[in-house]
Amino acid sequence: MRTRRTIIFALVMMISVAAMSQQANTLYYMNRVFQSQTVNVSAIPDNKIQIGGLIVPVFGQVPPPMYFNYGNNSFNYNHILHYGAGDMKDSLVIDLPLLMKKAKNTIAIRNELRWDYLNFSFRSKSNATFSVSIADRLMFGTTIPRDMLDFVINGNAPYMYEGKMHDFSKLSFSANGFHEVGLGFATTFASKFSVGARMKLLFGMFDVSSKVSRLSVTTDPETFFITADADFQLRKSMPFVEITDTGINKDFSSKSFLKMLSTFGNPGVAVDLGLTYNITDNMSVSVSATDIGFINWMQDSQVASANGETIIEGAEIGLSKDENGKLQYSLVNMPQKDSIGQYILDTVVELFDMGIKDKKYIGWLPSNLYVDFSYRLHEKLSLGLLYRGEFYRRTYIQAVTLSANSNINHWLSLHASWSFIDNTVANLGFGFSARLGFITWYMVTDNVLAFVFPQKAKTINLHMGCNLTFGHPKKKSRTAAKL
Questions:
Q1: CA dihedral in degrees (154, 159, 165, 168; nearest 10)?
Q2: Which strands, in side-by-side order, build the sheet including 327-331?
Q3: How far is the first Cα of the chain from the last one, in angstroms, to the nearest whole number?
């Protein structure tokens, strides 16, 4: 029996797995570790000298100094797969109706992984701070319109019979990696202000991304054919993938990967800015903006463009049973050497008759805005209220954090927080820094519960490592970076 499905176009867009930018709300208040300056460059550190990163000998750095973040504003694992009820209580079930119920109008998924090779800061007697940082960052991000999820899960029949159009114009995805070298400076002035800036030189390793201006599909109720109206670009800069008129060619050889990791031919620049105002001895406000910048993708770069309408007749799916009687499916006429994902990508390139050019393009980083209000209740305890917003393409993601921060003594600081992140309130954060001699260990997360119940978490992040610290004030301990 021949079964015709009209979901091929949506599937190609859904194969992007992704996400972005540094979400480190609790870290903002950890003024005893260099890494807090990555989110608030105007913070003046307590320590005169700090050295961190992989360059530091292994003093408890297992795993090495790193930052990991994952965020999803719509659903968690249990909204897709969970134990059933009644006769299915001992079995896992795929709950697509629940997934649709939890999905926002624009589903945003973010992820970042960062390795620090060198962090160095020096504070002078006049409270001027100079810093240097070298890191590699991998960033992934996607925004998926709810219309697309509805199209894939529920098919096109509901929209087709109502004469409605599926609007995918907010679809975007990006995956890239780059080397980052940062030079920072912060200082105090007029007794109540501190200001900071960090200039960052970027060198892109790889990028694959989309740029969508217009994208919609309409289904003919007579023929069931789909008319796609599109104005979008697929862009890539990497040595092991080539876009051609007939599809995607890949070369995953060690030579290609070595070329990617060692390249410095995709230059970029970004800046972090920060300002702190101490209203009184016990009250302060600060504003910080990070990752305002771009990368100029020039090496092995291609742009595939589609503009206009095309008719998609669908994909023919063949059904069969294996030797154990299990039902299998495959796409009819798909070359055996291809995976389904490869076949779909190749088909889309052909269907849209995409114009392919070897050309450079600019990719903007997702940028963050932090606004903080801090109040010191006691010499050793302060409270913080932090607002964070992230700009990525045509989406804006917001978070709010309440925190309690204590520099208990000259060697230990503790931090606790509660955050509204990714449309959920179940985010309890914790962080600490502990100094033994000239070695300071630190660890911080915005959601401790994510490590206990990962299947229920929308946000998972962890920042950890070890710094060598010198010149820490022992007699007077400030409770927050702004106070």
A1: -10
A2: 3-5, 315-321, 327-331
A3: 73
Contact indicator for 429, 444 with CB cutoff of 8 Å: yes
Residue 219 near residue 161, CB atoms below 8 Å? no
* pLDDT attached to residue 283: 94
Output the six-digit token pair for 362: 């600019």
Give the burial class of 137: count Cβ atoms within 10 A of its Cβ; 0-12 exposed, 13-18 middle, 19 or more buried: buried
Residues of the chain with pLDDT under 50: 1-21, 337, 340, 476-483
pLDDT of residue 391: 85
Q: Give the pLDDT score at 237.
A: 92
CA angle 230, 173, 453 (to 5 degrees): 135
**What does the alpha-carbon distance between residue 404 and residue 1 come to, in Å, rounded to a whole number?**
64
Beta-ladder partners of 310: 228
Cβ contacts of residue 448 below 8 Å, gap of 6+?
428, 429, 430
Q: How many CA atoms within 13 Å lie on the side-chain side of 204?
A: 31
- Residue 247 has which token pair? 């599809």
- Per-residue pLDDT at 314: 58
Maximum alpha-carbon separation in the chain: 82
CB 415 within 8 A of CB 398: no
Q: How far apart are CA 392 and CA 175, in angstroms?
A: 13
pLDDT for res 129: 92
Distance CA(244)–CA(241), nearest Å, equals: 10
For each of the domains in the chain, give its residue range(s) and CATH number, in order of start.
3-470 (2.40.160)
* The model's pTM: 0.81
CB 237 within 8 A of CB 177: no
Question: Cα 83–84–87 angle (5° rounding)?
Answer: 125
Half-sphere exposure of 403 (CA within 13 A, CB side): 32
Per-residue pLDDT at 297? 95
**Ramachandran assignment for 342, one of left (phi > 0), alpha (psi -120 to 50 degrees), beta (any other):** alpha
CA distance 247 to 201: 34
Q: Which H or E run contains 287?
A: strand 283-297
Quick count: other Cβ atoms within 10 Å of Cβ 276?
26
Give just the sign of the alpha carbon dihedral 336, 338, 343, 346: negative
